[in-house]
Amino acid sequence: MRFLDWILSFIYPNKCPYCKKIIDYKSTECMSCAEKMYSTSFRRIIGDNLICYAPLKYNSIVKNALVEYKFKNQRHYYKSFAKAMVNVSEINNLRFDTVTSVPLSEIRRKNRGYNQSELVAREFAYHYGIPYIETLKKVMENKEQHTLSREERAYNVKGVYDLLDCDISGKTIIICDDIVTTGNTLAECANVLLKHNARDVICMAVATVD
């Protein structure tokens, strides 16, 4: 350990995103939580027969970790979440050409300082040595999905996303998000990619509500 890292590890100790136990500064989670969190794979059908995978259930422990990640600037959690997604990919023997993520509006990205889904997606792509591509843009501001009823959520994302200037023809794409609840956001993004000639789209989230 470099001397500066050694000093910082005392001032700002690294903690497991899930149980908050102090861990080595190079670790992404404690061994106990890794064994529990990274041994499962969940599969859902969303939208028009799209497959969505997730490594974690959205229970109270995972919810707290994601809230800290998104709203309390614990952005380094992305490495742990990406590791969990890689595990799901390996379990299901997924094959794909590139990775992308659900975009944020410029306003929300500026306020938060980062796109939480993009950080995870980039780390996931890095693990496989394949390109991360920004494929989508948000063309209108809409209400936050978690503030709406199940019925309102499908309408709320219609026409919100469009393709950036990129060629995705014939590519199998994994699109990443942080949480899948109704699946409407991921399904809408996937439909835009398919409309622009993506060969196939696989959806993946850090956690699933169902």
Please state the average pLDDT score. Answer: 90
User: Runs with pLDDT <50, length 5+?
Assistant: none
Overall SS class = alpha/beta
Distance between the termini: 42 Å
Say how many strands there are: 8
Portion of residues within helices: 25-40%
- Characterize the largest beta sheet: strand count, sense, and whether it forms a barrel: 6 strands, mixed
Q: Please tell me how large the radius of gyration is.
A: 17 Å
State the CATH class of the largest domain: Alpha Beta
Helix tally equals 8
Indicate the proportion of strand residues.
15-25%
Name the CATH architecture of the largest domain: 3-Layer(aba) Sandwich
The shape is: globular
Query: What is the H/E string?
Result: HHEEEHHEHHEHEEHE
CATH topology assignment of the largest domain: Rossmann fold
Number of domains: 2
